Structures are given as structure tokens and as C-alpha cells.
Amino acid sequence: MVGITWSGAIADNFPVALPANVSTGFTALQATDGGATSVFLFGTADGLVYAMDANGGKVLPGFPLKAGIELLQTPRVSDGVLYAMSVAGSLSAWRIV
Q: What's this model's pTM, rounded to 2 decimal places?
């Protein structure tokens, strides 16, 4: 994955290597506690949800999370809960802090 700045340059710490079997789009999250951490969430064909630090490409502690078989939609976060939907129709949810 390549990050691009508003001026069109490649962002610091990019490109970042991703698993070969990414099957969803990406959700980008920005810290709301005044921190500078940006995180990308995405799913894979083997049913894993990854959270990756956008500033260095490292998988966050506690990830990946197992959500079943191949993910159908991009993982979402709402009110502190991470949701992932598999192609079989199962919904997985985790409270994240």
C-alpha cells in the first residue's frame, strides 16, 4: 500500500507491505484522544481483521482478529465496537478501546 500526501508525494514510512489475500476495502481511523496515531482496518480472504499502524505499517497488538471465513465488507467501527461481516453472513463484533 502506498500513502500519498496532499501535495502528491509518497508519505513517510510508505510503501507498506500487506497480506497477499486482502479481500476488503480499508477503513482509516484517526486517534480522537489528541494522539497522532492513524490506523487502517481491513479484512482478508481467510477471515482475519487487521489493524495496521499507518505511520509504520506494523500490525497492532491483539490483531489480527478471527472473524470466520472470507470477509464480505470493509470492517467498520461504531461507538467503540469493531464489526466484520463474513460471506457466510456471520457478524463478528469486538469492543475496542
A: 0.80
Question: For residues 43 and 22, is the Cβ–Cβ distance under 8 A?
Answer: yes
In sign, the C-alpha dihedral spanning 67, 54, 11, 34 is positive
Residues 6+ apart with CB under 8 A from 46: 21, 69, 70
Distance CA 64, CA 47 (A): 9
**CA-CA distance, 89 to 71, in Å (whole number)?**
9
Give 80-92 pLDDT, tens digit per residue.
899 999 888 889 9
Q: Is residue 36 scored above 60 in pLDDT?
A: no
- For residue 57 the three cell numbers come to 505499517
> Do 75 and 24 meet the contact criterion of CB atoms below 8 Å apart?
yes
> Which residues contact residue 32 at a Cβ distance below 8 angstroms, ignoring those fewer than 6 apart?
none
Supply the Cα-derived Rg of the chain in whole angstroms.
Answer: 14
